[in-house]
Task: structure prediction
Amino acid sequence: MELLITSLSLFTLLAIIILIATRGRPMRFFTAFGDTLMNLWTNRGPLFWTALTVLLVLGFLFYFYTPPQSWVGKAQPIAFSHHLHSGVKNIQCEYCHPYVGRSIHPGLPPVEKCLHCHNYIIANHWEIRKEHNYYDTNTPTPWRKVNYLAEHVVFNHQRHIKKQVQCVECHGQIEKMDRIKGKHFYMGFCIKCHRERNANLDCWLACHS
Ligand code: HEC
Ligand code: HEC
Ligand code: HEC
Ligand code: HEC
Result:
């Protein structure tokens, strides 16, 4: 019903506009409209190329000029790179995230752990001095969280790691990322894998508190 009223009023509005624009001779509109269509059709070649160029240019701009943050991930207080540490230097995930298989909160490494190495490696690097600052002032490094899960979902790494679900299946190839982009984990993502692996699908018992 509402749809009918809206389309009727839009139609009336359109009719009024045509009447005003053609100063009371609506047929002019239709001849003009027909002429325009004919013109468009005779010029279809150039029009096609123009449209294609415009689309390509827009696509190009969209692809190359989207702000880098939208695909790189948040800046962190220390320019830490997983690509360098896990990828190039091959440090195991568990070295820095040791509680991932045991605790609900795998946690991020305390700055002491970084200093085990960085007291010796590039100790005077500007970013490493920041580590010393945090250490000396006893401040936990204010790492910014990048992964989100809805508040009422109980997620636990333990069960997954025990069943040999690899980090990469949920987090992507962390060892290739300088900055982690992170993501929102939605239920569909959990359910899809649980279905494939015959894991618990009982939402309320398993995942929702
Ligand atoms: C040298 C130490 C180190 C190693 C090795 C390491 N990480 Fe990290 N990880 C960190 C630090 C520091 C952060 C917090 C800063 C950041 O997000 O980049 C972090 C953050 C993360 C986060 C994002 C946490 C969040 O939600 O905010 C994930 C996921 C993660 N690491 C997974 C991995 C995986 C998978 C590996 C192995 C491929 C790995 N890490 C190896 C130190 C390390
Ligand atoms: C097991 C040893 C080890 C640990 C632990 C470690 N790093 Fe490193 N880190 C390295 C090595 C090796 C390099 C490369 C040094 C070089 O470029 O010569 C490096 C380089 C860096 C750089 C310089 C990157 C650049 O752009 O040049 C930063 C910043 C850094 N690490 C931060 C951290 C932070 C923060 C932690 C703790 C979460 C940490 N590292 C833990 C070994 C380690
Ligand atoms: C089944 C999917 C899954 C697997 C497998 C998985 N993770 Fe996670 N991880 C998550 C989810 C979901 C979160 C967000 C949890 C939250 O915000 O409470 C998370 C968060 C994290 C965090 C941030 C924790 C924090 O305290 O902020 C780290 C670090 C992490 N994962 C490391 C790892 C490592 C290392 C592995 C492999 C050994 C791994 N994860 C395997 C799903 C997974
Ligand atoms: C890549 C595959 C995979 C993904 C993604 C995954 N899971 Fe799982 N999950 C499993 C497997 C396999 C088990 C079975 C563990 C077992 O049998 O002990 C499991 C078990 C669980 C359990 C324990 C169930 C029980 O029997 O008590 C919970 C809770 C759980 N997952 C929650 C989640 C949530 C929440 C997410 C999404 C953030 C998620 N899972 C994403 C594979 C996955």
Observations:
- Residues 63 and 162 are 41 Å apart (CA to CA).
